[in-house]
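Figure 2 data, in text form.
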Amino acid sequence: MRSASEQWHIRLVPYICYTPRWASKSAQNFWSQPPTNTAAFADFVRALVGRYKDRIHSWEIWNEPDNREYWLGSFEEFAGLLNAGSRAAHEADPEAQIVMGGLAWNLGFLAAILTNKAAIQNINVFNLHNYYETWSNESLEKIPEYVGRAAEILAAHRNDSRLWMAEVGYSSFRRGNFVSAQTEADYPYEHTDSYQATSLFRALTLVLASGKVSLVTWYRIHDLPEAQEIIGDENNRHLGVLDEAGHEKPALKALRYFETLFGQGALGCDDKVSVEKPVGSRAEVHSFLLPDDRIVFAAWLRTAVPGQRGRTLNPKEIPRSERIAIVSPFELNGNTQVFNELGGVEARNAHERTKERRLELELTDSHVKVAILKRKS
């Protein structure tokens, strides 16, 4: 831990769970049962936070309490645990950010917990998880809508706590078209190592474009070996940006490039940009203004057709391409650089050019195009 936080300057974002067998109500699935003694749980949290408060500055209470895989207690039991644990954490470190366990999917759970003032009185952050296209039939492009609904729920309860997405992921696992019980792949490139990188860039861009999330983390660092016991299905072994031997997957390169672009902050400007695209277009475009006055346009073709995941494809649909035009609200200097999701330079062609405030791009299957231009001062 000292090496991670001090030598490598990694921000640690731990969550506190699960229940040990000796503290559980039942031996069956003991770890997801509520602890029998909430006061003892609070004592543990107080000691843990007190010991590491110089190196760790946020603590998450439990994990996915809306998911029966991880919490078998009642809503009321979780509210009591959250109240006791968050209060103990703040007693040990009043400056710490206390996070409610990330929600798997159920925003109704968020609305319900916000009515319990005792449970949330020490909560600074509400956390969402997202695995669209892996454990959900929803497309990644629904992320801003999901985040927006969560923000609306907080606003309706006059709660100004921050929103995090401290788990977002996309697996590189598939068996034929099968991905999970919730989704199937439509295209041959989906759920591969290379497309995991594309989806990482897509997901993080969509979170950033929502303008509602103050912290996002990718889950996870490395893939897990076949022999290791896991919760859930095979996708849990294939979410890393490193393979199980520690070798870099393309997703790590995409993560590195995303951080290079947006690590110093970005102002979303989708509402100021217009996109010209064909009827029935699947183009997704997001626009950002960087602190150094550069403009970034990230564009790709959505893989999912709403309501049609797992359909039988017409071979003529592969490969796909679309020509689009982006009209910027800012005057551009005409020097366009176009990259892919890994930061590799894309060859310029007749459809990638700027004229006054207009940029034309040719989008193709399975890659993101990142166009970077300088705004004229």
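Caption note: The two ends are 46 Å apart (CA to CA).
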